[in-house]
Design a protein that fits this description.
UDP-galactose 4-epimerase, domain 1; Rossmann fold; three-stranded mixed sheet; 38% helix; 2 domains; 17% strand; alpha/beta; homodimer; 11 helices
């Protein structure tokens, strides 16, 4: 099975590549080749038992080598995230929409040359919805995006679903929850604090909480996201019909729940979280739906989410030391 | 008020232009200039009391003259319709999606130069939905398009709503029902028969009906569509929030109802309709939702639909003689 990861240098792309290079398999299939494409250099995977090609480029001008004729699965994770797409409209459109069109074009060339439509696993987002703190969205909820990132992701979903119906490719469109705990540094995304209130105290650092303890978010762990991506890569799509989208079974967690889980893993750590209300951030994040009833995902075999305390423990096991090293902090 | 019609040579574009040039007003405002843009030559409007500019070009490469700096209202009616967008993927994407992006770019240049965001009245379609004969869709129904035309229109809606939120333009997105009675000739659209079973008998010609008498469609008259377009051009959009879409109050009519209305206007005319089942056509049109509960449109002031018999009479009054002339048939 030949695989391409678009966005292979990113947070989830690296985790998917690590899984593939470590296990050498995707579902029941042996991996025979991997292309990692990104706008920056992808990591080396020296332990892989198959050829790994690392390409740097602009996804809107996707080169043919990124998606060779024999490609079986494409993880399309390349994206300009919410705050950046809001700040730079042209860049968001270029990567999030025109990048997806370039991928459709690449798959069309494969099928026009007699190849099988490649499976495309696309990371869409709950940012395609609005609804707010009181919402509990069912699988048939409308997407009314309140930001350019969400609009571009929703439009990309439409193009990929139509390309699937036409037989150019075979898409599964995953609307990921907010992923916590993100490694690395705080960033300018409005959602940055949702990871920071767990990550920073575990690093021994203070951090600001811009919303109240009752604020709820729809979240999922990196481990669960990778598991869902891998399932989407090999699942039977016949049963999906023309609707290729899946709202995933994340968990609805309040800030109070998150801090409780933090303290369960590192007693007293939540004392490093300072309540510093920030109405500008609150106004944005309070438009995001805080809960979904993700019934279709369960029918389609997507795994249920682990408890919040396991999310905190997994961050400690998987990413805490790398984050310390990246940020030049002493080892814990 | 300066107005542009994109698709000004088309069926609805000509009717909007005729209204503007006849009355010289749009709502309470005097019309001071009109640009009619299309990929073919637009009609002459010699009776207009204001300058009319007729431009021919490709909407994906929209020239600056099509949307001058002082433009107040743009009717964006340019489209590659369903059967053609299905047959020619690249053309559908180019006109229906990239043409809309070009319009967003033109409006951005206007606002970047200090101009007011132009009102954009966009004709989306019920083809953005699926659901079938038993569906009665509420205003919050999801768009799961079953054809490329619908996917492109739904994606264009997302881009225009986002551009409105960002202040590049001020959009109203009208999801038009199937418009009957279309003048001219039968065409290869799967929906062609819905107009043909009224138009052809009124011309004294036989026509084939590919579905059963119980088949229902969500329809609206050209008069009603023009009235809705004009209302959308001057209505207050503040009350719409970020959701700029409107499902319009068409009527759900069965073939039996349509033939009854035909016979009420021209007794016995329905004898010219031959039942010739065509499963290929039935399979397509039976995926289209046959009814909507268009509550938001009423709140927003869109006029209710007239009875079906008035639709048949209006075709006789407005379009029958022109259709005869166009098709070289003797005057009735």
């Amino acid at each position: 099975m030949r695989i391409t990861i678009l966005g292979g240098a990113g947070f989830l792309g690296r985790k998917v590549a690590r899984h593939l290079t470590t296990h050498g398999r995707l579902g029941d299939n042996e991996v025979t080749g991997l292309v990692s494409f990104d706008f920056v250099e992808s990591p080396h995977w020296p332990d892989a038992d198959f050829p790994v090609s690392r390409l740097v480029g602009d996804i809107a001008e996707l080169p043919a080598e990124a998606v060779p004729q024999s490609t079986d699965v494409i993880f399309h994770l390349a994206a300009v995230v919410s705050a950046q797409a809001e700040a730079d409209y042209d860049l968001g459109m270029r990567v999030n929409l025109h990048g997806t069109e370039a991928l459709v074009g690449a798959c069309r060339r494969i099928t026009a040359a007699g190849g099988k439509p490649p499976r495309v696993v696309f990371t869409s987002s709950i940012a395609t919805f609005s609804g707010g703190q009181d919402a509990k969205l069912l699988d048939d909820a409308r997407q009314v995006p309140a930001n350019s990132y969400g609009a571009e992701k929703a439009a990309a979903e439409l193009l990929l679903a139509d390309a699937s119906r036409r037989g150019f490719l075979d898409a599964v469109l995953l609307r990921l929850p907010t992923i916590i705990v993100r490694p690395g540094r705080p960033n300018r995304a409005a959602s940055s604090f949702i990871s920071a209130i767990i990550r920073e105290p575990l690093l021994g650092l203070e951090t600001d909480l811009p919303v109240g303890d009752a604020f709820a978010a729809w979240v999922a762990s990196p481990r669960r996201a990778v598991d869902w991506l891998l399932h989407a890569a090999t699942m039977d799509t016949e049963q999906m019909g023309i609707d290729r989208s899946v709202n995933l079974p994340g968990i609805s967690a309040t800030v109070a729940h998150m801090l409780q889980a933090l303290d369960a893993v590192r007693p007293g750590a939540s004392r490093l979280v300072r309540h510093v209300p920030d109405p500008a951030i609150a106004d944005i994040v309070e438009t995001w739906p805080a809960a979904f009833e993700a019934m279709r995902a369960r029918t389609l075999g997507f795994s249920p989410h682990e408890p919040l305390v396991d999310v905190v423990r997994a961050f400690v096991d998987d990413d805490l030391e790398d984050t310390r090293a990246e940020r030049g902090l002493p080892r814990g």
